[in-house]
Amino acid sequence: MSEMIRFAKVEDAEALAKLEMENFDEPWSAKNFVDCIGNAQGRVVVFEDSDESQGSKELLGCVAFYYAADEGEIDSVVVKKTARKCGIGGKMLAFLHQEVENLDVHYIFLEVRESNLPAQKLYEKMGYEQVGKRPKFYQNPVEDAYIYRREQ
For the chain, give me the number of helices (H) and strands (E)? Predict the structure, then answer.
């Protein structure tokens, strides 16, 4: 088995949309991924696991990110349920943080469900701090979002 972190390609969009559908009530569509990948100010980082002896590849996670001026926003972070708690989310975020240094991005923002304690712990470990709250931000179920920010 071989792990690789890379930027997504348009041909990854269907697999990424499937990963989102398996994990979220309000998933990104393949078109959302194609739009982000094709946008000069968008990036999608993927974590790929491949088995060359079998000739198989599987996308286990992704981070979708947009930026403008000196600020960026993470719009989606997803890791396949069976691959969680293996450090994949942290590896993808570290890759993104390193890459955005070249973009002159000074702050990265994201929202996370109030009940998603594992994600909150990950973001805090990666240098994010809670800076606000958006009431009833999420639907299905309705829930507040915490706003997190990381200074680059």
Answer: 4, 7
**Hey, which residues does 46 pair with through a beta bridge?**
6, 62
- φ, ψ of residue 145 in degrees (nearest 5): -115, 140
Flag whether the pTM goes above 0.90: yes
Q: Does residue 54 carry a pLDDT above 80?
A: no
Q: Which fold has domain 2-151?
A: Aminopeptidase (3.40.630)
Whether the Cβ atoms of residue 48 and residue 56 lie closer than 8 Å to each other: no
Boundaries of every domain in the chain:
2-151
What's the pLDDT tens digit per position in 55-77?
678 999 999 999 999 999 999 99
Closest CA to 45 of 97, 96, 103: 96
CA distances from 118 to 46, 58, 114, 147 (A): 20, 23, 11, 15
